[in-house]
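ENTRY TYPE: paired fold submission
RECORD: A
CONTENT: sequence, then structure tokens
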Amino acid sequence: MAVPRCACPKAPRAACRGDRTPGPGVGAVNERGVRVRVTFIDSKGVARTIEVAPGASVMEAALAQKIPEVQSDCGGACTCAMCHVVVDDAWAGSFAAVCGNEASLLSLLEAPPAHSRLSCQLRLTAEMDGLIIHTLEQGDGP
């Protein structure tokens, strides 16, 4: 599978800011009944698996299912970094490259874990079934 490229240079400004409206399918199935399983592993090692329709962001899915350690002050506008997560090594190449505001916010970390991302910038696709996301104790972000 090809690694998605960053949409920032050619896309409208909003492409890297995230969007403030819930993505399609948060907490529901899409029109074809497709669901994506995402497992969140918290800072204490507790795993929680949820199902969501493709199109939602990882942040939207986590907030809708009340996953601990994922927050959002900006509603997905990529301005607060409260939704900082770490994509599991096995899934690191599944998302578009870090760019724009996300890159700026992540650069504020002193020693960011490998594959650090803002979950508001991570859109789920049907091919991501089984995705693993590690959450961080609040205060471990920028």
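RECORD: B
CONTENT: sequence, then structure tokens
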Amino acid sequence: MFKRILLTAAVLVATTASSMAATGWTTGAVNFRDGPGAYYAKIGSIARCASVQLDYVQNGWYRVQWNGRWGWVAQRYITDSAGYCSGGGYTKHSGSYSKPASGGY
């Protein structure tokens, strides 16, 4: 009986949380949350193309480490493609703006 309960618990954990140890990048500015869901408290914001360490995924949310802190980001805002931010048409913004020489926008 105990083995059956243990096996059921192991299957349940395996289907709701997949373990991984990888690097990911944010695909947009994202909320960094206290738990795996939009109803958890926001503990910060992570900028687009920030590198995060992925721990595991649970119900569509990654547990990530960013700036030395653990939190959660929606899975749809994370990519595992290193090329996404380095050459895929996205240029990191420096925070400054220069008006075009022609005066147009």
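NOTES ON RECORD B: Helices lie at 2-16, 83-86. Confidence is low (pLDDT under 50) at residues 2-17, 89-105.
STATUS: closed
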